[in-house]
Specification:
single chain, CBS-domain, about 110 residues, 4 helices, alpha+beta, two-stranded antiparallel ribbon, 5 strands
Amino acid sequence: MRRYGIRYLPVLEAGKLAGILSQRDINLVESIPGIDPRRTRVAEAMSQEIYCVHPDARVEEVALDMAEHKYGCAVVMAGSRVLGIFTTTDALRALSKLRVDLEPPSR
């Protein structure tokens, strides 16, 4: 995850979403004295509380929920199929694009 700059990974079990593993989860495991992170199973480190959204969900609503609950990401799902992950960085990119679109043309 560090090598490729990935902050969140969905964890699937038998093709179904079972949890999400974040870089923060890994950092926590690495900080616990006496725990060998190379021997820790993903299931022990991942979060099972997952914020999921439909691909048609409005960015504004998802970003507001993420801010209100301090979620770092939302798993985008169509039925039981994981389509992707929407992160706080994605929300900020959408906000910055909106700002650019609202600015008057320069003279």
